[in-house]
Please model this.
Amino acid sequence: MTQTQSLSAEPREAISPSFVKKVFYAFAALALCSLAISVGGKWLGRTISLAGHTDDTSERTIVIGRNVISAPANAIRFDRQRRNGATERLDLYLRWPALDGYSDAARDDFNHAKGARTILFLSFEERSMSRDMSGRLEPIYASMLVRPGTPGPGGTMLYEFDTKSGYLHEVLAVAALADGQAFVARCLVGESAAESLAPCERDIHVGDDLSLSYRFPRELLGEWRSLDAAVRAKAASMLGRGG
Model:
């Protein structure tokens, strides 16, 4: 037998089934890793682009005291509050004038692109005071004001606070509501106002022993009538659906 015949006659080593399985599992693992990276990358990219916002419009049911509030997730400002159940405080943000929550179409407004200031910030919590801001005008605020006031936008009067009042760099905006009550809001002035997205604040009583404070851009002070009416109606609808 020649050397060539001897080599060709040698038995070839068979590939074991266990080796085939290992190769298969290795390729399967690589495929799964590739899929996970692709899905994870898309999820991470979307999360970064949303920057804490959500466009989820499904409603959450929130309980504060004896009140049940129903609000869409995209109107709830903080992710930790986008849960059903009881809480002490609920923070919302809504775009004026539609009073809708975050969406891709409204991204620039919610991200305040190009200096846009159209977002209202609302907070529900149990009452800590027996009077809302309008009710505090005469017994509390009046003694702290420097008179006379100066005319403000939309028929408001703007009053400066006494330097000892504790309300530095703020003015009080006052106007008469149709029911004879006073519209009252505190607004920052100067550099503090320039740095704030919503330098004006007002609180009202709603629901069952519930306080609603809302902050709004100074530019909307001239629309205080429609603003206050719209916020009240929005709060009533959320409490109505919830309760």
User: Anything to note?
Assistant: The longest strand covers residues 119-126. Residues 59-242 form one domain. Confidence is low (pLDDT under 50) at residues 1-11, 38-49. Residues 64 and 87 are 6 Å apart (CA to CA).
